[in-house]
Structures are given as C-alpha cells and as structure tokens.
Amino acid sequence: MIYSRxxxxxxxxxxxxxxxxxxxxxxxxxxxxxxxxxxxxxVILNKAITQTFDFSAVMKRLLALEPIQYVLGQEEFMNMTLxxxxxxxxxxxxxxxxxxxxxxxxxxxxxxxxxxxTGSGCIPIALAKNIQGSEVTSLDVSLDxxxxxxxxxxxxxxxxxxxxxxxxxxxxxxGSFDIIVSNPPYVRESExxxxxxxxLNYEPASALFVPDSDPLVFYRRIMQLATTLLSENGKLYxxxxxxxxxxxxxxxxxxxFESMILKEDFMSKDRFFLIKRTNKENFKC
Length: 285
Ligand code: GLN
Hints:
The protein is α/β, with parallel strands linked by helices. It has 2 domains: 2-64; 75-276, Rossmann fold. 40% of the residues lie in helices and 21% in strands. A 7-stranded mixed sheet has the order 7-6-5-8-11-13-12, with helices on both faces. Strands 1-2 form a two-stranded antiparallel ribbon. Strand 3 (74-77) and strand 4 (80-83) form a beta hairpin.
C-alpha cells in the first residue's frame, strides 16, 4: 500500500534537485491532484492511494525544467481549464487581472471586442463568457495558437471569431470595436538574462520578446489601428512592460489620444494601460 504523504515527499525530493522547495511542493501537489486525484487534504491526512501512476516520464520533463503547465497540458484561467502546449504562452495571473478589470468595467454594454494576439485564447474566451452580449474577434499570426484557442473556446462553450492575421498587414475591417485588448510581446531581448530557463527554453519567443531597438513596436501599431477601429467612447486595454510607463503615455499623446489610465498589477508594477476615446481627439497618424 502506498500512502499519499510518502509519495508526496518522494516527488518533492526529486523535484527539489531542480526547483526551490516551495515550488517543488506546489508542483508535487499539482501532480498528485492531476494524475491520482489526491488532493492537499488527502496528503495532510496521509490517505492511502488506491490508483497507480508511473511518474518517471513526467519527472524527466519537469527535471529538464519544462513548465508544469505544458507537462499537464493545461492551466487554469478565470475558473476555466485551458489546454496549453508548446506554441502558446502559458496564461499569467496578471493577465487574469487585466481580464477581471475589463469585465468589471463593461458588464452592460453588449460590446464588440477585438483581441490582438490570441495565444491560448485566455483573454477572448474569458471575455466572451463573462460579458453578456459581447461579440468577440481574436487575431493571431500563429496557426498553432489559433488551433489551441479554437479548441479551448469549444471546450468552454464560448463563441469567439478567430482570425489568422498579422496586424502589420492591411486588413479590410468591417465596422468598429467598443473594446480593443492586447497582451502583445513586451519583454526586451536584453531582459532575457533575468528570465527563468523554464520560460526561455520552452515558451514561444514570438509571444514574449521584442527588440531593444523598438520595444513598443506592437503598442504603436495597435494604437494607430485603434484611431480608426475604436468606436465612439471605445476603450483600448493593454498589458505592458513596467519599464515603459512614460513612453506609453508619450506615445498615446503623440498619436492624439487624450485620456489614459495606468494600473498596477498585484506585484505593484505598472502593468495595465487603458486608453479611452473621448471623441475630441485629433489624430496625428
Ligand atoms: N508577463 C510575461 C512574462 O513575464 C510576458 C508576457 C508578454 O510578453 N506579453 O513572461
């Protein structure tokens, strides 16, 4: 008979070769829950384990620092389970904050929403499900991401119009949007040295990194698109790099926007940026 505490300790011990103790424990709990339906409380009560699972392949991947989310093939986001795999960015807690903010501000408006950079589909799916009457379109340049996002939408019963499109190309847009949202790549190449191997070696670079020579390239393009795509009183929401607060404000003014809100994330870093159309703008480009 195998007892849950012994198995938990064994997994944690192995993982601690590659992870700090707290993280090793958190991963062990996730493994036990996912593969054996053994929860934290079962470990605390040291319940006997009735099923078996061979963890060796999983352990090998984890010890090579592959993110637990890719190993399990899923991540929780806004109370949904989303499939994730190499090729899509793992949804982050700060992005959940962004989505919660958008939902809180836009509950009664039946908005038309455009999400730029679909990834796993976490943003458009959560918005489609939580804002009644919303009509959500989401774009990505990655077919891998779009196919995972499409599956996630189906699994979570959300209606999202996914489009394969590069925002730097022209597009024949029909109508305007009340909300545009984007969590584009915003980590500078020079910031790589501060990032962990599990992100660097496994997550899609195209979803994360921007050149140091033009770190706001996506923001500029999206702000420019928003000058024609945002409806009257429309709002443009961004997740952003905390190092570029002044530059984000500057760029918005230069393009001709007049009303902006900056918001911190749970780590007290400047992380979210909202531009509101006031309809008095005089756009310059
Ligand atoms: N917050 C992410 C990270 O630090 C970056 C997300 C992004 O580039 N849009 O890994």
